[in-house]
Amino acid sequence: MAGSTAATARQRCRLSSSSRLKMIISPAEMDIASSSADVLATMSNSISSDFSASTFVAAAETMTPSSLLSFWNMDQETAESLAGPFFGFSLAPYLAFLYFLSREENECPKGVTVGFATCLLFVFLTIPAAIAAKVLYGVSLADSDWLHGSAESLLTMTNLVTVVAFRQALAAKEAGSPIMPVSATSYAPMAWLVAVLTAVAAATALVPAADAATSVHTPYLGGILDLPPEWSMANTFGPDLAFDEPANALTVACWIIHISSLVEFLVAMGFCWKWADEVDNPTWKGLTWGLLPLHSSGITACTYHLFYNRFAALVPLQALLTCVGNTTAAIAAYRIARSNGWKFDVIQLPKALSFLPLSSLKLPKWLDVPVQSDRIQVQQDESVQQSSSSLVGFEDLGQALSADTDYLFLIKLFLGCAVASYAIKYGETFFDSVQTASVGVGVAVIAIPSALNAFKWYKRSEDATFEGWF
């Protein structure tokens, strides 16, 4: 979420480890204000506190313009206490998403399932990193670049595995091959890839951890891709044109991880849309819609870092988007399973519960999806299919670069994300507003691309020839 999970970023750039439960899917960087990982580490305490409907009702009754302003300007501690329950509640729907997606009836490429499931690995392995940041340095994970980058790389890994597996399966489908790639029929290839990439990510954290000289702001990967300090924009163009970055600014390598998570998640979303056409099952397009909030969660995380982690209110916002995204992804995966013939009666209830009239239950229309074999297959004419595949958005990079090998595809993806990372890291130092803007600007940075992304998919669902704006 390429497009499994966690991020789907996700997101995976995520404000937190759990936000990525998106790919959790993330789209993607999706990707993170990793202070949310601190939230996850103390989640049980958050959930057991005064978190009830009456609390929200009481808060709503006393809401005034000044209190609303105070909400958006909350401190870090308040933000984390609000985010904790949402991250906690987001786990169950993500597990449901994985369960429905992996049903044999769906014939989902097994490597794709591995990719989405790997988001759980990202979530739980980020907890020790968050604890280390708090215990060793007294800061959130987002403010310690070497720990942050190592943890975030796990989300990028999640989305990368999802994209590669989806890409290989789609290539076989489009070529009309009767034999699917091993990554589509077996969990093993992508599981081994996950193991290798996890070892690499662990090394990027363990090596600096063993160095006594490592400090809170030690750069990720030694800052190998950063410009020398004497080449900073403030030194090169003067302090009147550019400012010096604060100590908690992300390194180029860390930005690459965040941006690639977002892009990979978008690519995975595009692959879901394309897969729907290849398997003649439009409910797969519903998964693209279901992953949208997770991609917005990743955008929220990157926005948090864009403003140097100043806007604490974005932490609970990302947590909310993660919870909503995991839920919509679970609903979309359920609809896919239903369309392929999966039924509730595959779950065997204990005899003690046999009296329950489950067989007579009727589902809402939006959940009761017709079985694939019962649907009338509408054949689109060849010209419309050609127009539908003429894709130009970031989510369609997989299709645009379909002729490339997996290695060349990943190299191009890395180079594109690297260029964007340099532009963001050093370009924003020319705008003083980054240091003085209100949280409303941050919310706009999240809302505008999220709305454009959603509207683009809406237009494409209405008109197969619609290509988008970027």
Summarize the entry for a quick read.
This protein is an all-alpha fold. It is built from 18 helices and no strands. The protein has one domain.
Describe the structure.
The chain is 60% helix and 0% strand. With 470 residues, the chain is an all-alpha fold. α1 (35-41) packs across α6, α11 runs antiparallel to α12 (283-306) and α12 (283-306) runs antiparallel to α13. The longest helix has 30 residues, at 145-174.
Biggest sheet overview: none
Strand/helix succession = HHHHHHHHHHHHHHHHHH
How many domain regions? Answer: 1
Identify the overall geometry.
globular
Number of helices: 18
Compute the average pLDDT. Answer: 79
Helix content: 55-70%
Unreliable spans are 1-53, 373-392
What is the radius of gyration computed over CA atoms, rounded to a whole number of angstroms? 22 Å
Structural class determined from secondary elements: mainly alpha
Please specify the SSE layout and strand pairing.
Elements: H1 35-41, H2 43-48, H3 53-61, H4 65-72, H5 76-101, H6 110-137, H7 145-174, H8 182-185, H9 188-209, H10 233-237, H11 252-278, H12 283-306, H13 314-339, H14 382-388, H15 397-400, H16 406-427, H17 433-436, H18 439-462
Helix pairs in contact: 1-5, 1-6, 5-13, 6-7, 6-9, 7-9, 7-11, 11-12, 11-16, 12-13, 12-18
